[in-house]
Amino acid sequence: MRWSWKIGEFAGIGVYVHATFFLLIAWVAISHWAREQNIGAALNGTAFMLALFGCVVLHEFGHALTAKRYGIKTRDITLLPIGGVARLERMPDNPIQELWVALAGPAVNVVIATVLAVWLQTVGVEPFEKLSMTEGPFAARLMTLNLGLVGFNMLPAFPMDGGRVLRALLATRLEYTRATDIAASIGQGMALLFGFLGFFTNPFLLFIALFVWIGATQEASVTQIKSALSGIPVARAMITDFHSLSPSDSLGRVIELILAGSQQDFPVEENGRVVGILTRSDLLQALAREQRGLTVGEVMRQDFQSVDSSEMLETGFARLQDCECHTLPVTRNGRLVGLVTTDNLGEFMMIQAALRSGGKPAKVSRLQ
Q1: CB-hemisphere CA count at 13 Å for 39?
Q2: 3-state SS, residue 282
Q3: pLDDT digits (tens, 9 = 90+) for 257-275
Q4: Last residue of a domain, one of 154, 185, 200
Q5: 63, 197: one domain
Q6: pLDDT at residue 349 greater than cutoff 70
Q7: Range of 278's domain?
Q8: Is residue 79 over pLDDT 50?
Q9: Are 117 and 18 members of one domain?
Q10: 154 or 128: whose pLDDT is higher?
Q11: Is 175 a catalytic residue?
């Protein structure tokens, strides 16, 4: 994620903090200072917020390490003002495995809250006498917030963990896409309820309503796309009429190719092997810095993903979602044979849908 900095790594998973997170910390410190005119209060409020986000990081590692048990890697964990985001390469195909991955995060918060409650009992403080997120001892407030995180995350609505738990339970008896549609519909219903209550109570509920509605809609959409692409090899939809570049080509050559056709991103080959991708955005950034004299090899991205022509389109779609560019090189026996882009996947799906609605076999010779 852009504007993020790495602050650590555990179990091969990098932890990043986004620039906007520092704005939240600054706001917390300033608000505590303005309210109490005390540097100690500002430091205490900042420390509490950092402790809370420490719990959020542990929550995300609960998801990540459980997914690792099922052979699923986590690309990274990023801290944002709204919480943490663990980028898993994919969710488990087995509903029971997805259930455990989804439950692992809230389970970590339960453990943290339990440890804090035991410690408070040990020092003579009744942890459940007055549950408050704003008043009382530091550890008691942190315990209450962890319990709040459990309750919030277990709401049966995407993108919260509860939505994935609900989908996993439904998927044990229903087809996966159908289970996702039902879980997404329940999430959207909750979003409408939050929005209604937000008008009369807390305006923050309006933000949560929007967050839940978008999350539920996106989850249903992505699942439907994956279902539509499953079982279809990449070779059926890849672009075979394209241009490739050499690392020694000039940027002027790239400009000529872009103006002469519709291709935006270009694979870069050397000795018959794909060594990079030159995207339109990277080219424009180089031109804006008046670096037209550079070669393709100096501007291209060397960190890129590719897909084999025998792999399924749903795999290619998942990789397109994870990479920052909109083009995947397609290889066969290590050699470049085509490209897959977000645009041509969309066109392929529209053509397939049109053919099915017309009662014709779903075969598109132009895309084979």
Answers
A1: 0
A2: helix
A3: 888 888 888 999 888 888 8
A4: 154
A5: no
A6: yes
A7: 234-367
A8: yes
A9: yes
A10: 154
A11: no
Residue 187 and residue 90 share a domain:
no
Nearest-5° Cα angle at 153, 150 to 156: 120
Residue 107 pLDDT level (bands cut at 50, 70, 90):
very high
DSSP one-letter code for 92 = -
Here the tokens at position 89 are 């390469």
Measured between its terminal Cα atoms, the distance across the chain in Å is 35
Alpha-carbon distance of 117 to 259, in angstroms, equals 66
* Same domain, residue pair 21 and 149: yes
Compute the distance between CA of residue 191 and CA of residue 141 in angstroms, rounded to an integer.
28
**Looking at the 3D structure of the chain, how many domains does it have?**
3
* Active-site pick, 9, 60, 270, 324: 60
Residues ≥6 apart with Cβ < 8 Å to 265: 277, 278, 279, 280, 325, 326, 327, 339, 341
pLDDT above 90 for 367: no
Is pTM beyond 0.90? Reply is no
Question: What mean pLDDT comes out for the span 134-156?
Answer: 85
Per the listing, tokens 């402790």 go with 51
> Within 10 Å of residue 77's Cβ, how many Cβ atoms?
24
229, 252, 283 — which closes off a domain? 229
**Is residue 249 pLDDT above 70, yes or no?**
yes
Q: Are residues 254 and 342 in the same domain?
A: yes
Q: Do 142 and 281 lie in a common domain?
A: no
Largest CA-CA distance found in the chain, in angstroms, rounded:
77
Q: Give SS3 for 102.
A: helix
State how beta strands 273-278 and 266-270 pair: antiparallel
Q: Are residues 109 and 11 in the same domain?
A: yes
Q: Is a pLDDT exceeding 80 seen at residue 202?
A: no
- Please report the sign of the dihedral spanned by the C-alpha atoms of residue 282, residue 288, residue 294, residue 298: negative
Spatial contact of 234 and 310, defined as CB atoms under 8 Å apart: yes
Buried b / exposed e across 320-346, counting CB within 10 Å, b at 16+?
beebebbbbbbbeeeebebbbbeebbe
The residues that bridge with 266 in the sheet, in sequence order, are 278
**What would the two tokens of residue 231 be?**
């079982």
Check which CATH number belongs to the domain holding 255 and give it. Answer: 3.10.580.10
Cis before 159? omega within 30:
yes
H helices of 243-300, in order, are 251-260, 280-288, 296-299
Beta strands at 74-80 and 13-18: parallel, antiparallel or unpaired = parallel
Shared domain check, 143 and 4 = yes
